[in-house]
Write the structure tokens for this entry.
Amino acid sequence: MPNHARAPLLPPTLLRRLLLCLLAISCFSAAGAPAAPGAGDMAPDDLGLTVKGDAVKVSDYAGKVVVVSFWASWCAYCLKELPVLEDIQNSSAKDHIQVIAVNTEERAVFKKLERAFRGASLKLTYDPVKASAAAYGVNGLPHLLIIGRSGRILKVYRGYSESSLDGIIADLNLALAEQAGK
């Protein structure tokens, strides 16, 4: 019998991460979906549901800058981003800004996460049938949008990292300056 060298196996943690990434890509596939809205487009109104089942809409926050972040518990960067989003919500501009974090997982997972974030100032919602994710063209995480007081999308960030933080803050400050009529 020939002695074939065995190919090295990937570590289980790396395989798990790879599978989660592939699952995320397949779950958020935009194939056949309408073009994702971009800067200048009106924001789709639906932002998912609260844990109590109440609908959350962009129009609920008319006159405010709305920051929308789509996230999941398996997305490591998303989990790092949530405290930053909480800080943004609690900033000196809190009366002029609303941060909404839209979880893309099933309700049972969201309920556990919502309990862990109880007391947070940012609005937590979930998107049970992926309607919001589809309307916003989410095909991967993280995915963040800045929506102006008029309801128009000012900026879309897809697949960003910590290196994008300065740009996001600058865009938020521009949006808030427009809000104040400066």
